[in-house]
Amino acid sequence: AGGVARTGNGELAVQGIGVAELAKEFGTPLFVLDEDDFRARARGFKQAFDAAFADLCGGVDVYYAGKAFLSTEVARWVTAEGLRLDTCSGGEMAVARVAGVPAANLSLHGNNKSVDEIRTALEIDLGRIVVDSLDELERVALLARETGKRANVMLRLTPGVHASTHEFIATAHEDQKFGLSMIELGEEPSPAAAAVSYALTHPELNLLGLHAHIGSQIFEAEGFELAARKLLSFQAEIKNKHGVELPELDLGGGYGIAYTEADTPREPAVLAAAMADVVAATARELGISIPRISIEPGRAIAGTSTFTLYETGVRKTVQVQAEDGTLSPRRYVSVDGGMSDNARPVLYDADYTAVLASRVTESEPIVSRVVGKHCESGDIVVRDVYLPEDVAAGDLLAVPGTGAYCWALASNYNYLGRPAVVAVRNGAARAIIRRETEADLLARDLGA
Ligand code: LLP
């Protein structure tokens, strides 16, 4: 992140505030978030996509995907930077409302929204309910009639494009829980087509457009382009069949970030330009007007803003046998957190890196494995990283790129309290989420 650098004495610092001071004031493990970096990336997405689509549809609505990392402060930052907010539960909606985000700026996602969640969305006049299935569309219609509201809906489709970092498979990716299939079932219309007909014939539903989310941690524009083409073709079919042009099109999130040097994401401006070209050309080909485009980046805004600061504890070195029988040492370095504050290595085999943050040293870098303190051998933070040989108990380690889906996925496994999140802005640090205490952990235990 931009504001992170070594000070004169070699200590890592955020906007000039050293990690030792942060650890002393807020404890470890600690999520250290560079608020300026977060905001700059939010602003950067908005500006890049606005610029690319200005002449096509007057700009782009950027929804920050709150699932990546959300707090009331974060909701206020993205709102101040001109973004909207994508929520996917009653809890996320509650955070947004407490933060004062206008309901019109919110979208609500989820493949199994509860009646309460839908009712809340209707009651507060939430901007867009992204409907995931025919069952849900009927449920939304029923609740709209009940509450006397007209529901603003988008339809989430499965365009048969599944993209990930290193591969994307342009064959049907139907076998998943999300979205309305675009494939016809014999004589029957596709679930997507049936949903459109249903929405257009129920006046309590205000069908605003189509939506697709094709995956996460995507580097290339190709998958987004394919999805845009598919959805625009479907728009053209809707125009032919129903004589309406849906005003909006949401291309979802999924923009990748660099976790390690091996990752090479594209700049938002590059992706935006490629996507704008395809949208413009496809709409022209099909003879339809260009809908208002929206996107939902989460990771690419939050991810690189944050590093996790850990204190190191015990070390040990083992001899690892290679296939040819040769032995080589691997040193384990334990830290005071682990899979409860970063589940991504365990869940997705995700790669991170780590640096000695408290000082620089001349000592030889050796292959190290950074592990957590949980009672589980899979509790690995960084699988393989060169760390100085003299790393010792009481040093501070920083693991960068932990701003997305780390705090959000944090747990209380082994009764560890979730870490605090500290935001640094204008050279000052303040906690935006405090650390959980043992009292917090016991508060819900009715026998305590
Ligand atoms: N929109 C929808 C409908 C989504 O489902 C998601 C993420 C996003 C937007 C934001 O995607 P992003 O821009 O952050 O990639 N826990 C996993 C990632 C799960 C993503 C779920 N959906 C991980 O840590 O890699």
From TrEMBL:
Pathway listed: Amino-acid biosynthesis; L-lysine biosynthesis via DAP pathway; L-lysine from DL-2,6-diaminopimelate: step 1/1
CDD domains xref list: PLPDE_III_DapDC
Boundaries of every Orn/DAP/Arg decarboxylase 2 N-terminal domain copy: 46-302
Domain Orn/DAP/Arg decarboxylase 2 C-terminal stretches: 321-403
SUPFAM superfamilies, alphabetized: Alanine racemase C-terminal domain-like, PLP-binding barrel
PROSITE patterns on file: ODR_DC_2_1 (PS00878), ODR_DC_2_2 (PS00879)
InterPro entries, per the entry: Ala_racemase/Decarboxylase_C, DAP_deCOOHase_LysA, De-COase2_C, De-COase2_CS, De-COase2_N, De-COase2_pyr-phos_BS, Orn/DAP/Arg_de-COase, PLP-binding_barrel
Annotated EC: 4.1.1.20
Residues annotated for substrate binding in this entry: 299, 344, 348, 376, 405
GO molecular function per UniProt: diaminopimelate decarboxylase activity; pyridoxal phosphate binding
Domain of life, source organism: Bacteria
UniProtKB keywords: Amino-acid biosynthesis, Decarboxylase, Lyase, Lysine biosynthesis, Pyridoxal phosphate
Residue numbers binding pyridoxal 5'-phosphate: 254, 296-299, 405
Catalytic residues identified in the record: 375
Reaction(s) the record says it catalyses: meso-2,6-diaminopimelate + H(+) = L-lysine + CO2
Cofactor: pyridoxal 5'-phosphate
UniProt-listed GO biological process terms: lysine biosynthetic process via diaminopimelate
Coiled coil: none
Chain positions found as N6-(pyridoxal phosphate)lysine: 67
Similarity comment: Belongs to the Orn/Lys/Arg decarboxylase class-II family. LysA subfamily.
Subunit structure: Homodimer.
NCBIfam families given in the database record: lysA
Protein function: Specifically catalyzes the decarboxylation of meso-diaminopimelate (meso-DAP) to L-lysine.
Protein name: Diaminopimelate decarboxylase
Species of the source: Paeniglutamicibacter gangotriensis Lz1y
